[in-house]
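Could you join me in thinking about how sequence relates to backbone shape in a protein? We need material for that, and I hope you will provide a protein of your own picking. Once you have written the record down, we can walk along the chain together:

…
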Amino acid sequence: MSNESLRQRRELAVAPAAYSIHPFYPERAEGSYVWDADSKKYLDWSVGIAVMNIGHSHPKVLKAVESQIEKFQHLCFAVGMNETFITLAEKLNEIAPGSSPKKTFLVNSGAEAVENAVKIARVATGRQSIVAFTHAFHGRTHMALSLTAKAQPYKVGFAPRAAEIYRAQYPYAYRSPWGNNDPQVCATDAIRALKEQVKTTIGETEVAAFLIEPVAGEGGFIPAPGEFLRALRQYCDEIGALWIDDEVQAGIGRTGAYWAVDHYDLEPDIITSAKALSSGFPLSAVIGKAKIMDKLKPGQLGSTFGGNPAGCAAALATLQVIEEEGLLERAQEIGAIALNQLKDLQGKYPQIGDVRGLGAMIGIEFIHGPDKAPNKEVVESVVAHAREDGLILLPTGTYSNVIRLLPPINMTDAELNEGLEKLSNAIEHALEPVTATI
């Protein structure tokens, strides 16, 4: 069946609010590539929005899932907990940041992990207020969309929203609201503003947790300066609040470490993980300090499908592949090569306002002129041209003017070079006609 036939069927059968960026219908995928219903081959630099970090259809993941479902598919841990749930919890506790003993609770999606992290933080502290940040994305369920910053399309029309949610400024150095674009200065300004906001409008004794992505994903692939995260850790300790570290998109090797906060040797109180954790099988995790997780009583957390045996088996295999194939180091190599080439391209085109990233999680921000007005149109052109050339890219950003690069972290040098060439061609195609007007 063709892309067009599937499009027609979709129009009749699927709710239009379920939007797809690309007008194709994948039929199969292997390694770094995807083939659509018209048999066109694409190099996939979306990996399902940071899900297939170790590539599509990795044989070790498929074998692990097959072995599990031959035994049984599901029972529900509320009835009787499967061994793979326990084994995965043990592994996640082992690799979690910091030396404190950890415990883990498994659910299905990033949004579910975030909602449960908030529940845990509120019970553990006896407080209610949650401070999230501008440029944040934490999911689409009720609490998660309330925590998310971007109004359109995530929040508009979905009211009333959850109570006791407050919004602080994310340390977005390139667009610092305090005027200085140096990351260290921005970090200092941001923590000063955060403390002032909490003291004057929320109350330090009211804050249950600060919830932050160490690399803002949907906000534009913005790494938070290490200085800010260190100061946030210290402030949490000072006022008795918890730090919830949302690693749903940045975690599981994407940045060249299991967790983005590993780059700064920091230990959050609670970590949320999903996406790449189980290589496409629905699974997410809340990993917390044991002394915090133990505050909740049996039955206060639950999920019918959370910790499904097949998903746990896929996650264990995924983590094994990352270790055995040295993919944390490989993600750092991929990121360094890509950043160097993109920085060179930035020197050629003033419309590329910023190139930033951590490991293989890279954002390219496009602008109009020296006032940094967001250039959404160029992003749309680059994504479309790259698709025609066989490269899948994704737009992102609060202002929809960023291209996010999410290549598989086990891709070959040849595949990396292929993707960078196609990306450069798409950018040049979009920018060359307007260079003279900038």
